[in-house]
Design goal:
Mean pLDDT: 95
Low-confidence stretches: none
Largest sheet: 8 strands, mixed
CATH superfamily of the largest domain: ATPase, nucleotide binding domain
Structural class: alpha+beta
Number of domains: 2
Helix content: 40-55%
Distance between the termini: 56 Å
């Protein structure tokens, strides 16, 4: 018997079949691009991505060569919701968290609820990256769609719903809407009233790892799945990444190296709100009962994708045709020494602590002899410096990290992990299975259907570690000097870059 994990991200979807002892039996992935119908807009074509999700499921199941699947589970990107009807009709696209729509409501909402009040309820502060303002925009600017939608589903719940499950959302993803009461584990009537949004258009909330339905007959036949197998509630992709590498307890942190570069520490008690707000940090339910997480992040993987598309367009097309891993080839071109260029990684809205939107990226220090490998290493160094800025403030909020686990596509690169260890000054451990997100969802599927009596047993059974990357003391010292220079770059250029961004 086997378990199926599915992950839907901002730029691609993945499905994997694992044996009950953690062996990878089948894996499929498809990449997609988000749409920009107007400047500043960013959305996923729901119908198209759903077809791609189905193809990856069908391919992974076929690769497993008939090993019967016992249950499945889905993880996904946060914030983005899909409007659907109760008879599973898709009504529109999903607005991504960096879509500008909804910004016009922020000032009024700040007059209605303070960051401290919102944080006490939801564990986040107000921002346009969350679902709340997107729903307000739809209600005002697309009222017909808003009214026609029986329910708005986060992507994990949407894919589960389309496979046959009931309409549900797990706690970790519900938190990404700003409408969730983290203490009550339910939608907040207070925030819904302030936002003038309708509770009945939101799905019931459930913990991760519980059965929410079963695979429908028609979809089972289409995808080669057993009829009626349980569908188990999943979680926010970063939380499931954490599960897939065994990050479940305080002191541990997952370092996700995907579309988003994301450091996710785990803690058992909610920190003081003022300390977290000062550092731009959120508090979210982990997929592990009783534990919380926070996110230090930037769009590092998206910057690497931009680099690939910009500097290796022809090679990308050749790699797509031949099935080669172009990322591995490009990363192998990075020099051993520190890059001689300095990058300000403001290619998109930044993450904590400042969430800077009105800026632009900078690549400084270019010379005629600068190679593309050196530019790539400069990008990776800069995105890691960006994480370090917030990481150094964690102890002040009562959060300590001693155990880093590197996961995601970028963790396949020894060189990238080593740069991370050198800059952050901590050992990094890489699991044997790099695709931790789908492994984490497979473990949740196993817990939900009774294969494992607990997540702890699932992790002990399925998670195996590969190797440890220790910081190089000499490079760590050099990077600390470079980090001090990096920190001066934005203050020096802020006025000029804000002028370019307008």
């Amino acid at each position: 018997m086997s378990l199926l994990g599915i992950d839907v991200g901002t730029s691609g979807c993945k499905a994997a079949v694992f044996s009950e002892d953690g062996r990878l039996l089948g894996l499929a992935y498809e990449e997609y691009d988000y749409q920009r119908p107007k400047p500043g807009w960013a959305e996923l074509d729901t119908a198209r991505v759903w077809q791609q999700v189905k193809r990856t499921i069908g391919q992974a199941v076929a690769d497993a060569k008939g090993d019967p699947i016992k249950a499945l589970c889905v993880s996904s990107l946060g914030e983005t919701v899909v409007p659907v009807t109760t008879d599973r009709k898709i009504l529109g696209p999903g607005l991504l968290n960096f879509d500008v729509r909804g910004e016009e409501y922020l000032d009024k909402l700040r007059g209605l609820i303070s960051d401290e009040q919102l944080y006490r309820i939801n564990g986040n502060t107000l921002g346009n990256q969350y679902t709340l303002t997107k729903l307000k925009w739809l209600k005002q600017h697309q009222p017909d769609l808003y009214q026609q939608a029986d329910i708005f589903l986060l992507w994990s719940g949407f894919v589960s719903f389309m496979l046959g499950a009931d309409a549900k959302v797990d706690y970790s993803l519900a938190n990404r809407t700003l409408l969730f009461d983290i203490e009550r584990s339910d939608w907040s009537d207070e925030i819904l009233e302030l936002a003038q949004l309708d509770r009945e258009k939101l799905p019931p909330t459930v913990p991760s790892g519980v059965v929410i339905g079963s695979v429908a007959n028609a979809i089972a036949a289409e995808l080669g799945l057993p009829v009626g197998i349980p569908i188990v509630s999943g979680g926010h992709d970063q939380c499931c990444n954490g599960l897939g590498c065994g990050v479940t307890a305080p002191g541990q942190a997952m370092y996700g190296m995907g579309t988003y570069l994301c450091l996710m520490p785990v803690f058992g008690q909610r920190p003081e709100a003022s300390a977290m707000i000062e550092r731009g940090l959120n508090t979210e339910n982990h997929a592990v009962p009783g534990q919380y997480v926070s996110f230090l992040y930037n769009q590092g993987g998206s910057m690497v994708k931009w680099f690939r598309n910009t500097f290796a367009g022809a090679e990308r097309r050749q790699a797509q045709a031949s099935g080669q891993d172009l990322y591995a080839a490009l990363l192998s071109e990075m020099p051993e020494d520190l890059s001689r260029i300095m990058v300000l990684p403001h290619f998109a809205i930044t993450g904590p602590p400042d969430f800077i939107a009105d800026s632009c990226g900078v690549v400084a220090g270019l010379k005629l002899e600068t190679s593309r490998g050196e530019i790539l290493k400069g990008l990776i160094e800069a995105m890691t410096f960006n994480i370090r800025e917030t990481f150094e403030g964690l102890p002040g909020a009562g959060i300590e990290v001693v155990d880093f686990r590197a996961v995601g596509g970028g963790s396949k690169s020894d060189a990238w992990i080593q740069v991370s260890a050198d800059i952050l000054g901590r050992p990094f451990v890489r699991p044997k299975i790099k695709e931790a997100g789908v492994l984490g969802t497979a473990m949740l599927a196993g817990v939900g259907c009774g294969v494992f009596p607990s997540l702890e047993v699932g992790i002990e059974t399925m998670v195996q570690l590969d190797r440890t990357f220790d910081p190089d003391p000499k490079k760590q010292s050099l990077y600390s000097e470079r980090f001090a220079k990096y920190q001066r770059l934005w203050p020096l250029m802020a006025d000029y870059l804000r002028g370019l961004a307008t």
